[in-house]
Amino acid sequence: MQFVTAGESHGSQLCAIVSGVPAGLVIDEAQINADLARRASGFGRSSRQEIEHNTVSITSGLRFGKTLGSPVTLLVANADGKNWSDRMSTFGKAPKNLAREVTPRPGHADLVGALKNNTDDCRNVLERASARETAARVAAAGIAREFLAALGVEVFSYVTRIGTAEFVEEAPLESAPDYKPLDIEMSEVRCPNEEATEHMLKMIKVAQVKGESLGGCFRVVATGLVPGLGGFESGPERLTSQLGAALFSIPAIKGVEFGLGFEAAQRNGSEVHDLITHTKKSGYSRASNNAGGLEGGMTTGLPLIITAAMKPIPTMASPLKTVNMDTLEEAEASQERSDVCAVPSAAVVAEAEVCFVLANAYLHKFGSDNMDDIQAALAAYKKRLLKG
Ligand SMILES: Cc1cc2nc3c(=O)[nH]c(=O)nc-3n(C[C@H](O)[C@H](O)[C@H](O)COP(=O)(O)O)c2cc1C
Questions:
Q1: How far does residue 131's CA lie from ligand 1's centre (Å)?
Q2: Which pLDDT score is estimated for 349?
Q3: Which pLDDT belongs to residue 49?
Q4: Backbone phi, then psi, for 20, in 5-degree steps?
Q5: What DSSP state is assigned to residue 4?
Q6: What are phi and psi for residue 154, nearest 5 degrees?
Q7: What pLDDT is stored for residue 51 in this prediction?
Q8: CA distances from residue 213 to 40, 51, 164, 205, 208 in whole angstroms, order as listed
Q9: From the CB of 346, is ligand 1 less than 6 Å away?
């Protein structure tokens, strides 16, 4: 299952095409819209989110709510696009009074993108480098998410840190799979703990007043996985490498840990490796899940637990120093309408990326033509594993 997105931040719409979708999968538009709403929410986001409707329109690949096996096209309109139609016109001449973006923001794609593409207007870069594009990813991943749900897999996320405000969990790897999505979504920062939520909200409010921006950390959890997804045979087959690449494809993600992550580096082997157990009823399992559900590049059958770190937002209300590309003199960086903190939202985007990787792992292992055959192959595999 592959997807490609198109569309600029202030163009008329975003588009995603998902190919390699099996036939016979039931798709619920409301579910995709709910995910888009989750991506748009979270305290600390810009006023852009109040303008956008973030509703998906599916224009191909479905008949009567079920996939046909052909590419699925998903469109998400940019409500703000109409305010930019002259400045972002696909044809015609640029308006005479067009203000070019010549003061690149440190931490954003502006300068290097402009140098690489030989443009004197950073808008030619930032319109696509903007994380508005991730709305198309979330819409596209609705297809992968429905596919996984039909196979008993659930993917969710929650925030564990905003700046220095941390949700301290005693045994995160044990508790992570048990958080209830409803509790997570009740929090304005998508953190399932009230006290930590309050602390994080305070942190964002202080940053807002100071003209600062913030990053943080979040966890993505997938439950209901069978063991043996991915592969050990070569680097690209390792699910670890696929998940890492998928998560690092999200703008501003600067660190990814599986299970214990960096903590494992300072422990003895006996305090890290998960003991192998077996019961007749459930087959093989593990006494703990320090590996975060991955061994040898494959799923162990225990919950997949990934923690990722996001850097602070580059656009700041108190702009950083930069260089004016016309005069080559010191200047203040451009001011786009911007989030102060987007960690809760980035976590939803990360869910989307994880959904695609896991969906592909299932398709690779159990076939890809239609849901009935895939479900039958999965049931046969589960039966074989139980035989031991
Ligand atoms: C969900 C989400 C929302 C974001 N919102 C903004 C924003 O409002 N303003 C901004 O400057 N950067 C924002 N970013 C981060 C930039 O897109 C990112 O820092 C930039 O593209 C440069 O890429 P890099 O950080 O990977 O180097 C956001 C990122 C994500 C994932």
A1: 5
A2: 98
A3: 80
A4: 75, 25
A5: E
A6: -120, 140
A7: 87
A8: 17, 21, 12, 10, 7
A9: yes
The answer to whether the CB of 309 is under 6 A from ligand 1 is no
Q: Average per-residue pLDDT in the chain?
A: 96
- Testing ligand 1's pocket by substitution, the residue of 14, 108, 335 carrying the most ligand atoms inside 8 A of its CB is 108
CA of 253 to the centre of ligand 1 (A): 9
Backbone torsions φ then ψ of 155, nearest 5 degrees: -125, 125
Estimate the share of the chain in helix, then strand, then coil, as percent rounded to the nearest 5: 40, 20, 40
> Residue 273, by phi and psi: left (phi above 0), alpha (psi -120 to 50) or beta?
beta
297 lines ligand 1 (CB under 6 A): no
What is the tens place of the pLDDT at every residue in 71-104? 999 999 999 999 999 999 999 999 999 999 999 9
Q: Say yes or no: CB of residue 134 within 6 Å of ligand 1.
A: yes
Q: Which domain holds residue 19?
A: 2-387
Q: Which residues contact 308 (CB under 8 A, 6 or more apart)?
A: 217, 218, 219, 220, 247, 253, 255, 256, 257, 346, 347, 350
Q: How far is CA 216 from CA 112, 130, 228, 340, 368, in A?
A: 25, 19, 32, 12, 37
159's enclosing H/E stretch is: strand 154-162
The atom of ligand 1 lying closest to the CA of 39 is 1
Rounded to the nearest angstrom, the distance between the alpha carbon of 18 and the centre of ligand 1 is 24
Burial class of residue 195 in the structure, from the number of CB atoms within 10 Å of its CB (0-12 exposed, 13-18 middle, 19+ buried): exposed
* Separation of CA 98 and ligand 1 centre (Å): 24
Taking the C-alpha atoms of residue 319 and residue 252, their distance in angstroms, rounded to an integer, is 18
Name the pTM for this structure.
0.97
CATH number at residue 374: 3.60.150.10
Matching residue, tokens 């096209």: 73
Radius of gyration of the chain (CA): 22
Residue of 35, 313, 316, 334 to test ligand 1 pocket, by largest number of atoms within 8 Å of CB: 313
Residue type, 368: S
| Ligand 1 close to Cβ of residue 290 (< 6 A) | no
For ligand 1, whether the C-beta of 313 sits within 6 Å is yes
Distance 213 CA to ligand 1 centre (A): 11
Q: Which residue has the tokens 């006996």?
A: 270
Tally the domains of the chain.
1
What is the number of the ligand 1 atom nearest to the C-alpha of 345? 1
